[in-house]
Amino acid sequence: MAMRINCSIQNTICLLNPSLFSLHSRISHLKFKPQLRFSQNPSRGVAFFCTNATNNGNEEPFVLTTPLYYVNATPHMGSAYTTIAADAIARFQRLLGKKVIFITGTDEHGEKIATAAMAQGSTPHDHCNLISQAYRTLWKDLDISYDKFIRTTDSKHEAIVKEFYSRVLANGDIYRADYEGLYCVNCEEYKDEKDLLDNNNCPVHLKPCVSRKEDNYFFALSKYQKSLEETLNKNPNFVQPSYRLNEVQSWIKSGLRDFSISRATVDWGIPIPNDKTQTIYVWFDALLGYISALSDDQEQPGLQGAVSSGWPASLHLIGKDILRFHAVYWPAMLMSAGLSLPNMVFGHGFLTKDGLKMGKSLGNTLEPNDLVQKFGTDAVRYFFLREVEFGNDGDYSEERFINIVNAHLANTIGNLLNRTLGLLKKNCQSTLVVDSTAAAEGNELKDNVERLVYKARIQYENLSLSSACETVMEIGNAGNLYMDERAPWSLFKQGGYCF
Ligand code: MSP
């Protein structure tokens, strides 16, 4: 009896903590099949996503995106963070039976990339190929289960951006004007002087913004002020966590200004339709990657085809520094083009080193490859999900990393796995010889685990990833306690069998 129940628990742990999936794949030689059974308890609050249905082929897919990463430099742990979180969410949705389209990719145009390529003595084209590949390699090393990888230099993307631009133009939302302002090349954004530090330093990159004056094409963002206000009022879950919604609402309230969506001085970009002297602003271009990623490679690329393959996105996961682009500019652009808005934008916090955002421009990064080589993929994935409350900033410390991984993965999960699998191997030829579901009926541990499984499900749905990890550890602890109490090893010694 003890044995059967503990094997079920162990399955549950692997299934419920998608961040530990590689661990799960290592025990797949066992002859029992993991089962996922979530109890339904509608009285326990409303989850953000509708996840109960199993996929019957007609159901809307769960479309989840990470930002498209700039290819100015190779990825660091800060860039990997969003993708690890997205991967855990994608795996969770798949476990619920949803068809998931998990989109990631690279943002390859603009001044920042062209300058980085030049500094490497390379062409933008070769530079982008190299760094984009480094992202793919890292996702492989981190066991990231993405479905689509879009590059903004893909020809299908370029075609869709041009079509989208033409729609917005036809809707009367693009006009030409002069612009003068302070530009942060690292953010690829004109800044308001009031938001800058001393000497016009950008608050994120701590580098001076440069004065720019250009004749550009503008997007009439101000026209969408009211519609955006209404959208957020009607749908407060659109921006999460809720404290970020307040931030977005106050930006909108303070008055939206039209923004420039072309560059006269940047060659490395998609040319403006009917004006080859300007290229499309890198953000206007990159946001459309979320749609062009959906486009089927076999078909003639087109906006409608891409949209009908899964748009709107269920969830955009982003860092808090790019919230304005996703929660203000992007919805307005979509409204202008007559397309649906994504269901939710979640802005997480930063991984920091000594309180400062980890990033290439500050030179304080942590190399994910070094961590993976030293500690293994599961440990890296688990640590960042568990340690950083999703939404808030989190500081990295190697001491903490080692302590958490030892306590949670080695002593709790590892111990439970070794005890259950070891006993099964030694005494039962690694098989379950009885029906574990029937045998566990009425057992207190089973009831407890079912309750915890339900709790973890709600936490995953609410994107409380750290709490979900905690609940999974509760299941592990309950399993270990049960083993201690029942001591099945002595039952075996006394000549007992698997039940
Ligand atoms: N290219 C744009 C996104 C375009 S999406 C259509 C961009 N790229 S980025 O490479 O600079 O950043 C990508 C994501 O990585 C952002 O969400 C950013 O917040 C995140 N991170 C970069 N450094 C980070 C940390 N130190 N910590 C957590 N996330 C961080 O912005």
Automatic annotation (TrEMBL):
The keyword Repeat does not apply. Keywords: Aminoacyl-tRNA synthetase, ATP-binding, Ligase, Nucleotide-binding, Protein biosynthesis. It catalyses: tRNA(Met) + L-methionine + ATP = L-methionyl-tRNA(Met) + AMP + diphosphate. Its EC number is 6.1.1.10. One of its GO terms (cellular component) is chloroplast stroma. One of its GO terms (molecular function) is ATP binding. One of its GO terms (biological process) is methionyl-tRNA aminoacylation. Residues 197-421 form the Methionyl/Leucyl tRNA synthetase domain. InterPro entries: Met-tRNA_synth, Met-tRNA_synth_2, Methionyl/Leucyl_tRNA_Synth, MetRS_core, Rossmann-like_a/b/a_fold, tRNAsynth_Ia_anticodon-bd. The keyword Aminoacyl-tRNA synthetase applies. It holds the Pfam family tRNA-synt_1g. NCBIfam families: metG. Belongs to the class-I aminoacyl-tRNA synthetase family. PANTHER family: METHIONINE--TRNA LIGASE, MITOCHONDRIAL, METHIONYL-TRNA SYNTHETASE. This is methionine--tRNA ligase. It comes from Lupinus albus (White lupine).
